[in-house]
Amino acid sequence: xxxxxxxxxxxxxxxxxxxxxxxxxxxxxxxxxxxxxxxxxxxxxxxxxxxxxxxxxxxxxxxxxxxxxxxxxxxxxxxxxxxxxxxxxxxxxxxxxxxxxxxxxxxxxxxxxxxxxxxxxxxxxxxxxxxxxxxxx
Amino acid sequence: xxxxxxxxxxxxxxxxxxxxxxxxxxxxxxxxxxxxxxxxxxxxxxxxxxxxxxxxxxxxxxxxxxxxxxxxxxxxxxxxxxxxxxxxxxxxxxxxxxxxxxxxxxxxxxxxxxxxxxxxxxxxxxxxxxxxxxxxxxxxxxxxxxxxxxxxxxxxxxxxxxxxxxxxxxxxxxxxxxxxxxxxxxxxxxxxxxxxxxxxxxxxxxxxxxxxxxxxxxxxxxxxxxxxxxxxxxxxxxxxxxxxxxxxxxxxxxxxxxxxxxxxxxxxxxxxxxxxxxxxxxxxxxxxxxxxxxxxxxxxxxxx
Lengths: 137, 304
Description:
The complex is a heterodimer.
Chain A: E1 9-15, H1 22-33, E2 37-45, H2 47-56, E3 61-66, H3 71-84, E4 91-96, H4 102-108, E5 113-115, H5 121-127
Parallel strand pairs in A: 1-2, 1-3, 3-4, 4-5
Helix pairs in contact in A: 2-3
Chain B: H1 4-15, H2 19-30, H3 35-42, E1 51-56, H4 62-75, E2 80-87, E3 95-97, E4 112-119, H5 130-140, E5 144-148, H6 159-162, E6 165-170, H7 177-181, H8 185-188, E7 191-194, H9 202-213, E8 223-225, H10 234-243, H11 255-269, H12 278-285, H13 291-303
Parallel strand pairs in B: 1-5, 1-6, 2-4, 2-5, 6-7, 7-8
């Protein structure tokens, strides 16, 4: 009966110019099945647009997928804009190809967690506090 | 439940035009919280924005058409808010809300506001308390409020009770003439759009719709052929919608509205599962109670 409590709302987006969206779509599907309300914002988003989406959708989480290597440019901008919009309460997750050396720097900027290749969906679902585990029902 | 003080603070910020306060208030009312405070806040306020609802089968192009309407509205210098409903899984409570991808041409434009909503229960095509959410958006200052329902098809008449204008989307090759005679959503449509108007057969479907919806003696229902691909018909549709008189609003004391209030009341009671009903759930799961008996007991509990 636990799914009658409020489902976590998570915006998933890709920022910048990389068009590889297979991974983020798998995550979207997996989190949906784990009981999340997943708002998929799509490809090629600008940081400004993503932050407005997070606000207007009143999301609890923002998940960003970056495979282009531009994370040290895009993520700081997003964190800045979130703060400027009064959205400090939104937790940010990162996925894609992020070199290990950059992970501590990103966490210092306020990124809650970086999920690299090989991450399982239940791991992410557990992290965002999704309660439903469909296979256990 | 949110604290009274916190809601008062939110309403203060809302009055000052704080967008994040608006965002939070919409979330609260769509979850059935803070309803009284918001009703009091909005009472006696007159606003001009009408709630325009788009409905129709899934895949007919509701989100795409909304995206086109957003573009058209923005090109005229007006602002628009969209409430887009998608279904929530009955099994897991999860939902994948992807409508805004088709509206993304205006991502980052502050004159456009889009909220994706998961409709609970799998039965209704719109979420509860959407009328309040729409009023909040209008009061905040959006010129137009558009509601996109879940693609619920023939039984989708719930929009009728909350929308000022109901637009039904159909596409070419939807079925033989008898399809048109069925009761249901066709009865509540104020405008019928033949979408994907660039496809072969669109003109025939348009003619069919016009002939069958506008029999002598019937109130006339306008039929418009629109193609989001070629943008043909978008401007005409919007002009038509702007000129259309609002339907008799539901503030009247009619039975359908009463029924909806009862449905919403029951749904609110289940915002959280009543813990003391666990024994009923267990007996039902173990096969000791029939479906009907289990439902009866839980309903009796809610009414107490």
